[in-house]
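Issue 218. Parser rejects a valid record. Input:
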Amino acid sequence: LRRFHTSPRQCPACSNCRTLVQNVMPHPAIRAELDKNFVLLATDCDTPEPEVRAIGAKHMSHARSLPFVMYLRNDGEFVFGTQGARDAHGFAHDLMHGNEDPGHRH
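Output the parser choked on:
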């Protein structure tokens, strides 16, 4: 399984995060891919777990637009990350790349 980390901030101002969690992730094809190939972790971007903060600082320090999504291999190695709004098509594309051969690097 691949790990998928997101920061769906639960605040009224974050429509991108709400859209991802409420509209994009429940899409049947996306939900099936998430259930089959990913372990999900949602964390508050203002107070993430130390491990999540360290990965984000190292690999996503440029990210400014929520939600931040990080794709990691089973061993915790960073594969790639995204920031900002994603529609179902874009998110499905991200999932395909996040689920590529574990030896493949971006």
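Fixed in the parser; the record now loads. The chain is about 40% helix and 20% strand.
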